[in-house]
Design goal:
This protein folds into two domains: 127 residues, Ribosomal Protein S5, domain 2 (2-Layer Sandwich); 79 residues, 2-Layer Sandwich (Alpha-Beta Plaits). Helices cover 31% and strands 40% of the residues. It is built from five helices and ten strands; from the N terminus they run E-E-E-H-E-E-H-E-H-E-H-E-E-H-E. Strands 1, 7, 8, 9 and 10 form a five-stranded antiparallel beta sheet that branches. A five-stranded antiparallel beta sheet has the order 2-3-6-4-5, sandwiched between helices. Helix 2 runs parallel beside helix 3. The radius of gyration is 24 Å and the shape is rod-shaped.
Length: 210
């Protein structure tokens, strides 16, 4: 999956048969942020006839939330086509709001689908993208006297050490891809002579420029 940079916003406008379609895009990391952004756009253009929307946002330990709204347009002619564009671009953590000022000419169902799809495509066309990848965090706890040697061994073998903290013992925090845990256990066993094993701490999401 991909997303756009945090706090990033974009806007574009197209005109079709005197109807104006102003499409606003924002990075949203929760459903509440998506709803707040939609409300913000409604308040910015209070005299517009329609504020159609679509968003894809994550939820913990479950599939992404996908929502769309036709906001008074004929059913299926606005929100779903907008959502299809976001899905087709493999995007998440994003909300699109297409504000329409009616120009006096009916566009028909096909015309509306094209207009709303095109408006979103144009708005996201120039936005920088970030690739999302999931990683796993592990803690390896070792005696203080071994910490430097073990950390150096991990780094020289190409493992990502995110930090080392010191309490009763030294805790080395490691990040790796989900399919690398067996190799991680092997190198940790080798460096500690089988005395210590890394403990799983959870997952994280990394954002990498494309």
């Amino acid at each position: 999956m991909n997303t756009i940079p945090r706090n990033h916003r974009s806007r574009s406008e197209i005109a079709i048969k005197r109807s104006r379609f102003i499409t606003s895009i924002a990075r949203t990391d929760s459903e509440q942020q998506a709803r707040d952004f939609i409300a913000e756009i409604r308040a910015e253009f209070p005299d517009a006839r329609h504020h159609c929307s679509a968003y894809i946002v994550p939820q913990e330990d479950a599939n992404d939330i996908l929502r769309s709204s036709d906001d008074g347009e004929p059913s299926g002619t606005a929100g779903i086509p907008m959502l299809d564009v976001l899905k087709g671009e493999n995007l998440t953590r994003i909300t699109a709001v297409a504000t329409r000022y009616f120009g006096g000419t009916l566009l028909g169902a096909g015309g509306l689908v094209h207009a709303y799809s095109h408006s979103v495509s144009k708005a996201i066309d120039t936005i920088p993208r970030l690739a999302l990848s999931t990683g796993h965090l592990y803690h390896l706890t070792v005696p203080h006297t071994d910490a430097g040697k073990v950390e150096a061994g991990l780094r020289s073998a190409g493992w990502e050490v995110t930090q080392t903290t010191y309490g009763k013992e030294a805790t080395i925090e490691l990040a790796c891809a989900p399919d690398e845990h067996e190799q991680l256990f092997t190198i940790c066993a080798s460096l500690t002579k089988g005395a210590r094993s890394p403990e799983f701490q959870g997952t994280f999401t990394r954002e990498v420029p494309m």
